[in-house]
Amino acid sequence: MSKSFQFSLIIKGTILATILAMLLSLVFGALLSFTSIPESDLSINIIFGFSVFIAAFITAYQGGTRGLYYGLSVGIGFIILVLIVSGILWSDTPSWLKLAEKTIIALLAGGTGGIIGVLFPQS
């Protein structure tokens, strides 16, 4: 049984990744405010990767097949959304090294989440 590739799942997954990233950023911001945890790029990358991983996992689980495609598509969609929003909100030129780092994190997290999401049995 071959299911067709559903573009609507990618849109939902990208929106889910965005919402998760915002919620995790709020929690991390509260932790920074009320504790002595130091701020670092590593924690921001963890938030970034974790939100894409979870969204890709859920998207691929709902898709049922083609987990790598769904996961990578969610990662690419999230990167494009982040680029658009940062282009609107910040006037500075983006750091290409940080952009490449975030792209690699999103693709690895999305691909991994998509593959694992397909492996979980459908109910």
Throw out a few tags for this protein.
mainly alpha, 4 helices, 0% strand, 123 residues, globular
Strand fraction? under 5%
Main β-sheet, in a few words? Answer: none
- Provide the structure class: mainly alpha
Q: Can you tell me the overall shape?
A: globular
Kindly report the average pLDDT value. Answer: 88
Work out the radius of gyration: 15 Å
Helix coverage percent: over 70%
- Number of structurally distinct domains: 1
| β-strand number | 0
Distance between the termini: 16 Å
**Continuous helix count:** 4
Following the backbone from N to C, one meets helices and strands in this order, namely HHHH
Parts with pLDDT < 50 across at least 5 consecutive residues: none
Description:
The protein is mainly alpha-helical and 123 residues long. It has one domain. The chain contains 4 helices and no strands. It has helices at residues 7-34, 41-63, 67-89, 96-119. It comes from Desulfosporosinus orientis (strain ATCC 19365 / DSM 765 / NCIMB 8382 / VKM B-1628 / Singapore I). InterPro entries: DUF3792_TM (IPR023804). This is Putative membrane protein, TIGR04086 family/integral membrane protein, TIGR04097 family. Keywords: Membrane, Transmembrane, Transmembrane helix. The chain crosses the membrane at residues 9-30, 42-61, 68-91, 103-120.
